[in-house]
Amino acid sequence: MTDEEFNNLVVCNDHISPKVARIIDPLSEEGIRHKNKLRVLAPPKSVDWRSAGAVAPVRKQNGCGCCYAMATTEATEGILQIKTKKLIPLSVQQIVDCSSTFGNEGCKGGFQVNAYHYIEERGIVSESSYPYVAAAGVCKTSITRDVHKQCLRPGDLVGWWPIKEGDIQELLEGVAQQPVSAIINAYPSDFKLYKGGIYKSDACDSSKTSHSVLITGYGEDEHGTKYWELKNSWGTEWGMAGYGRLIRAEGGDGELFGVGKLTEIFHLKVNAAS
């Protein structure tokens, strides 16, 4: 498979998403209150949300360009587990099938911000109630509107927080609180072939962003090299059983995540739910 064919199958975003959803304004009273809450404690030296039980098993897109839906549901799974102590895989397929009126395009791509907006307005059911089939279909409203199946009901997701591009400190503080979703540049061919270690690519064009992932933690290796840990959605065959470590820069443009500019990361604010 050529790089172009691969990218057409699995990457799904190539620019910053439109501001169609309710994002918390960092300068508003709510935004300042949320930011102050994040900075109550200094972030620890390392964080691993997998070990903490807040990350569901690795998924595989299987030719459906729905990384935006996977990263969104996985971030939501994480904050729900932190709040309720229950890790429940949520329905990626619901986002794929049902969020087109919010600006997404099923398996042809979409945006995390639109998926969060959908969850805020419509809620979301479990993966077991609405399983993933790697193809876009008709929205099964008989399932999605069943309050007995909804893990999050409409209004339970009450907002999200965009972390400023290149703000390493704020990102550390964010990941210290919960897993967060991000968009990176996954076009370099060596990223597709990554099998382990801390990834850094000289082939990166930091102006392009193409792929949504979940940041599950951070740390440093035995040599003192700092990294972010991400969960990908290309199955367990990619990376280290579906996970990767990307170089953690100290700030500035071009090398954040070792792949490209970070363009969007979202914090969720969720009312305690089921």
What are the salient characteristics of this protein?
globular, 274 residues, two-stranded antiparallel ribbon, 8-stranded mixed sheet, alpha+beta, Cathepsin B, Chain A, single chain
What does this structure look like?
InterPro entries: Papain-like_cys_pep_sf, Pept_cys_AS, Pept_his_AS, Peptidase_C1A, Peptidase_C1A_C, Peptidase_C1A_papain-like. Belongs to the peptidase C1 family. This is Peptidase C1A papain C-terminal domain-containing protein. Keywords: Disulfide bond, Zymogen. It is a single chain. The protein has eight helices and ten strands. It is α+β, with helices and mostly antiparallel strands. The protein has a single domain (about 20-25, about 40-270), classed as Cysteine proteinases (Cathepsin B, Chain A, Alpha-Beta Complex), CATH 3.90.70.
Instruction: Give the name of the CATH superfamily.
Output: Cysteine proteinases
The structural domain count equals: 1
- Which structural class best describes the helix and strand composition? alpha+beta
Average pLDDT works out at 81
Q: If you compute it from the alpha carbons, what radius of gyration comes out, rounded to the nearest whole angstrom?
A: 17 Å
Topology:
Layout: H1 3-10, H2 29-38, E1 47-48, H3 67-84, H4 92-98, H5 112-122, E2 124-125, H6 141-144, E3 150-152, E4 157-162, H7 168-177, E5 180-184, H8 189-192, E6 198-199, E7 211-220, E8 226-231, E9 243-247, E10 265-270
Helix pairs in contact: 3-4, 3-5
